[in-house]
Automatic annotation (TrEMBL):
The lineage of its organism: Bacteria, Bacillati, Bacillota, Bacilli, Bacillales. PROSITE patterns: PROKAR_LIPOPROTEIN. Residues 1-24 form the signal peptide. It holds the Pfam family NMT1_2. Keywords: Signal. It is found in: Periplasm. SUPFAM superfamilies: Periplasmic binding protein-like II. Belongs to the bacterial solute-binding protein SsuA/TauA family. This is NitT/TauT family transport system substrate-binding protein. One of its GO terms (cellular component) is periplasmic space. The keyword tRNA-binding does not apply. It comes from Salirhabdus euzebyi.
Length: 334
């Protein structure tokens, strides 16, 4: 609960100094401009970049102004203060805002990723790895209170491992410094996102041995969301946005990872295409990319169970309160 309060404190503090104008308008060519704030830049969000690069948004008459806002608190601040029309961020943030009594609720309307995006990486090869091998090991985890950490600990508990007593667990390293800390420290295991995990393998600094996403099951890990008022006032535009995302999800599902990597490579200029392809393939194999934008009730309940297990669920919020599936269902039925 401390992390919930800290999250909301940061959000509302940032709102006080955040001065931006809403960006929903039409340009001279009759395209509707939408401002989208993504929580980070990640291969995990490949369908979003595909929708831009393959022209799926353009086909719908939309022009996307994509900005990376680096963190759940900043992303939610941007959305709440009208600095963006739509945010791509973890669903847990909508629950945190709701718990503080938001007058204009943040509604999840199109899911992009349906599983955790982190992988278990070991410093040494583990060809016959079993989860119980982690007992007594030095484990470098993710930041406490974040979804990667909550999912990671949830998986370990499901495997019969108490993260606090069965591991030498470290959670005091900033997100950006975790890869270097693992490489230079005496940690035996680490929880990493792509493409860092693939880079480690290529350079011989680590070995991917398990997927937290596969182990945890489906969860609304990253979802497009907007204020309820925006959805009500921009119904047609939201449908067009969701239709473009659905086209991209279907294209990624049916397309070879190498081709996907080539399409999204402009968003990762400092990463080799073969590494991007490896990352895409790993996410496809884990079933991490949602193949349609519907956030169903089972996934929502799984999210709440993970948050509750971590002591971070501020209140029990029904699926229908913060999730709109009608938009996605209409698009899929077309």
């Amino acid at each position: 609960m401390k992390n919930v309060r800290r999250f909301m404190s940061i959000v509302f503090s940032l709102i006080l100094i955040f001065v931006m104008s809403a960006c929903s308008n039409s340009d001279s060519s009759n395209k509707t401009s939408l401002s989208v704030a993504e929580v980070t830049r990640s291969v995990f969000y490949a369908p979003q970049y595909v929708a831009i690069e393959k022209g799926f948004f353009e086909e719908e008459g939309l022009e996307i102004d994509l900005k990376t806002t680096w963190g759940g608190d900043k992303t939610m601040t941007t959305l709440v203060s009208d600095g963006a029309d739509i945010a791509l961020v973890g669903s847990e943030t909508s629950i945190y805002v709701h718990a503080r009594g938001a007058n204009d609720p943040i509604i999840n309307f199109a899911q992009l990723t349906q599983k955790d995006g982190t992988f278990l990486v070991s410093k040494e090869p583990k060809p016959n790895f079993k989860w119980e091998d982690l007992r007594g090991s030095k484990f470098l985890g993710q930041r406490k209170g974040g979804m990667p950490q909550m999912v990671g600990e949830y998986v370990l508990k499901q495997k019969g491992i108490d993260p606090q007593s069965d591991l030498e667990l470290s959670q005091n390293v900033d997100f950006a410094n975790i890869p270097n800390a693992f490489q230079t420290g005496d940690y035996e295991y680490v929880q990493l996102f792509e493409p860092t995990a693939s880079v480690f393998e290529k350079e011989g600094n680590g070995h991917v041995i398990a997927s937290f996403g596969e182990a945890s099951g489906k969860v609304p890990y990253t979802v497009f969301m907007a204020k309820q008022s925006f959805l009500e006032d921009n119904k047609e535009t939201t449908e067009k946005f969701t239709r473009a995302i659905y086209k991209a999800q279907q294209w990624v599902e049916k397309t070879d990872a190498t081709e996907v990597a080539e399409v999204i490579s402009p968003y990762f200029e400092d990463t080799d295409v073969d590494i991007i392809a490896s990352s895409v393939e790993r996410y496809k194999s884990a079933g991490a990319f949602a193949t349609d934008p519907i956030l169903d009730e089972e996934e929502w309940n799984n999210l709440k169970a993970i948050m509750d297990e971590a002591g971070e669920l501020p209140e029990d919020v029904d699926h229908g309160t913060l999730v709109n599936t009608q938009i996605a269902e209409k698009i899929i039925s077309e």
